[in-house]
Design goal:
Length: about 750
């Protein structure tokens, strides 16, 4: 039996019984004195419901004194579980090593939004901190009752409560409640997802008292992953499990009109599942499922998807009708009037392609229906919404569905993992057996939801004295929520689209997040309809830092263009207009660390084939500030760019774990370079043609930066904000500005592939 085969038996009760103790209820609303007097009578007591207003939904003290922290988010590879463990350990006054963070099982945690919006620490950690603080308060009150002392006369060290004046008077957490459930009501705000918040009566520690938070604690899961000692979602196996493969059309929008099931009759155990546009096969072993998918004869409808010529994508966006327009924030001054009577107007337009999640492995999911209950093992970063989506897809009560997160091949947005989970559930119901769905590389890159393509228009009005008196920036593109950020509803999954559910495409994009001050300023976005509304390989959704890289590629490139037009140093120009003190601090910190020399761009002292340049870009994201200096080398003859060095200044308020934060920033920079230099989804009149690593190349190990220097700005007095996405946001602009500095050529379309660079330079 593999480690994953027994996961269905995993439960909160089994965790709490690790030391052999029974589970009972203690604490409020039952009076504390009564509970302490009749603990034994509650040995048969039931646990409180798994609801956001119960302390037991977040924290448990196990029989051996260790702590289980039930977290409704998950770690998508950045070591989040370490930081959450630090926050819980800090508030409970227990060793970090005694805390186990249990993530992403809908049977053991409430819906805190999954991995979403860089909110793991900012919002999820905030809730876990408050829950741990409340647990400590309750435990100290229990100890006060047991020791016959006032609570304010007690202190806690390593899970041991003792009198401040006499350390011999003591009782451990394990003795107080080990193996039992808290039964303490929290003040829940009645929201689920990212914004869920349910504090208790306790206040968390003053940051000046922290001894665990702020330490660089190394994560312990790297070696098991490297040495193949940890199972992934692809390794889940169940008794009687069969293997499924989905059949996608070669022409987008086509649906099966005739399926010849006899064409796979010679493959043992092979069966067809066909429901409207949904088509899949199952077989007893994986190779037979692969053969069945290849051999099945299907007649498809004559579809003609309304895809523009790939070379005309941006022209399509320019000319497409606007479905929604929104001016973000409050317009400053009167922008239209300001542009009417100025000495000079600087204008530019920038272009960003569709991009794929391109996870290192295609999505996989396993679904089992047993006794009317559905369990799904998924690599989705939002398993609680997967549970909800399965319940709606199969038309069963939500209480009958369970989703278990298992480490997958990556995600960073609304990837193909949610679709795989729904496909597995539909197949499992059809064949009456557990089904493991494994996508192919072609399906993963070709059919995952895409980061939206867009154009961005910017203009600045300059008066006779060379001052910027007006600034306007407008993004226009496909919606980042054409399908939603999760698979919580059939309208947002391929299984739902192909089975004919009613659709509801939503609208959302974004504007630059910065603090530049101009007398007249307007930031707006516009969305356009999807190219194909149902079952599209170009349906758009969230990709890491949704629309942030493209918006700031354009806005921060334009800021540089204005500085160059005014013959000003790019940093000097930014500091002249930035008004937020923390924004100014990150720009100064990054440039000082990088050894920035003040001068206008471009440099004019280079000849020959190989040239180099530096570029600066900065951005905010949900409270976090990041400034990035890129140093690049360019081979004019080949167009090849090497982003050689990055210097990053990062301010996300209080730093929980500087080691994890540093590696998170490094990951953002690497992925940002890949998306800037290589990544572009291509398509023709029939379908997406970027379907593998040759047709959708990403950065390879020989192209990674030589160094990434990081300046961490710690503000213990400011609540932590997110780090999972902000530092990817300025990367493209920093590289673009460095290319201009090196060559004097402004490239306004991503990616900066060798062919495009060489063509631009010529």
């Amino acid at each position: 039996m593999s480690k994953m085969e027994n996961i269905a038996q995993f439960s909160r009760r089994s965790i709490l019984k690790a030391g052999g103790a029974l589970v009972v209820s203690v604490g409020m609303p039952i009076g504390l004195d009564a509970v302490l007097a009749i603990q034994d009578a509650f040995a048969q007591g039931t646990k409180p419901p798994l609801t956001p207003d119960q302390l037991s939904s977040y924290i448990a003290i196990n029989a051996d004194g260790s702590v289980s922290a039930f977290f409704g988010k998950m770690d998508m590879g950045q070591g989040l579980f370490v930081a959450i463990g630090q926050m819980v350990a800090e508030e409970l006054d227990v060793p970090f090593t005694s805390v186990k963070v249990i993530m992403g099982d809908t049977a053991t945690s409430v819906n805190q939004g999954g991995a979403s919006g860089s909110t793991g620490i900012q919002l999820g950690g905030k809730q876990m901190r408050m829950a741990a603080a409340e647990a400590r308060r309750v435990l100290v009150e229990m100890a006060a009752e047991k020791l016959g002392m006032p609570a304010d006369g007690l202190t806690v060290r390593d899970g041991l409560v003792h009198a401040k004046a006499d350390a011999a008077k003591k009782v451990s957490y394990a003795e107080l409640i080990g193996g039992r459930y808290f039964n303490v009501q929290l003040d829940w705000n009645k929201e689920i997802g990212n914004t869920l918040y349910a504090p208790g009566k306790a206040k968390p520690k003053d940051p000046r008292e922290h001894s665990i938070v702020g330490k660089a604690i190394v994560r312990a899961d790297i070696a098991p992953k490297v040495y193949a000692q940890e199972d992934f979602c692809t390794d889940v196996k169940l008794p009687g499990m069969v293997h499924g493969r989905m059949i996608r059309p070669s022409v987008a929008g086509a649906v099966p009109v005739k399926v010849d099931e006899s064409s796979i009759a010679g493959i043992p155990g092979a069966k067809v599942v066909w429901e409207k546009g949904f088509l899949g096969v199952v077989a007893d072993n994986e190779w037979d499922a692969i053969k069945a998918a290849q051999a099945l004869k299907v007649e498809w409808s004559d579809a003609k998807p309304p895809f523009p010529n790939a070379g005309a994508l941006y022209e399509h966006i320019r000319n497409a009708p606007v479905r929604k327009r929104q001016v973000e924030g409050k317009e400053t001054g009167n922008v239209d009037d300001a542009f009417k009577s100025v000495a000079r107007v600087i204008e530019a337009e920038y272009e960003w392609p569709f991009q794929s999640h391109a996870c290192m492995g295609p999505a996989c999911a396993v679904a089992e229906i047993k006794d009317g209950n559905v369990t799904c093992w998924t690599g989705s970063q939002k398993p609680h919404f997967v549970r909800d989506g399965i319940a709606l897809t199969l038309d069963i009560p939500k209480e009958k569905a369970r989703s278990i997160w298992v480490v997958g091949p990556g995600s960073y947005g609304r990837s193909d993992a949610d679709d795989a989970a729904m496909d597995a559930a539909v197949l499992a119901r059809a064949v009456g057996k557990p089904v493991r769905v494994q996508y192919t590389r072609e399906q993963a890159t070709g059919w995952d939801p895409k980061g939206p393509a867009s154009i961005h228009r910017a203009r600045a009005a300059i008066d006779a004295s060379g001052n910027v008196v007006a600034y306007e920036f407008t993004s226009k593109g496909f919606s980042r929520i054409d399908v939603n950020t999760n698979g919580g509803a059939p309208k947002d999954t391929l299984a739902g689209h192909l089975r004919g559910v009613d659709l509801k495409s939503a609208d959302g994009f974004g504007v630059p997040a910065e603090s530049y001050e101009f007398a007249n300023k307007r930031l707006a976005w516009e969305t356009i309809p999807p190219l194909l509304d149902r079952g599209s390989p170009l349906r758009s959704a969230h990709l890491r830092d949704p629309v942030g890289p493209q918006v700031h590629f354009a806005s921060e490139s334009f800021i540089d263009e204005v500085a160059a037009a005014l013959n000003l140093d790019p940093v000097e120009f930014r500091l002249r207009h930035l008004k937020d003190a923390r924004d100014i601090a990150v720009v100064k910190a990054a440039t000082e660390k990088a050894g920035w020399q003040s001068r206008p761009s471009p440099r004019r002292d280079q000849t020959g084939t190989r040239v180099s340049g530096r570029g600066i870009a900065y951005a905010q994201r949900n409270g976090t500030r990041v400034a990035v200096v890129a140093e690049v080398e360019i081979d004019r003859s080949t167009g090849k760019i090497w982003a050689r060095k990055f210097t990053v200044a990062h301010d996300c308020g209080q730093i929980i774990n500087p080691d994890g934060l540093k590696h998170t920033i490094e990951g953002n920079i690497i992925q940002g370079v890949s998306r800037t230099l290589w990544e572009e989804v291509k398509f023709d009149a029939r379908n997406v043609t970027s379907i593998d690593w040759m047709t959708y190349p990403i950065l390879d190990i020989t192209e990674t930066p030589e160094s990434i220097d990081i300046v961490l700005i710690n503000h213990p007095e400011i609540a932590p904000s997110g780090a999972g996405e902000p530092s990817i946001r300025p990367v493209a602009a920093a590289i673009a500005n460095a290319i201009f500095d090196a060559t004097g050529v402004r490239i306004r379309r991503v990616p900066f592939s060798p062919d495009r660079v060489r063509q631009s330079l010529s």
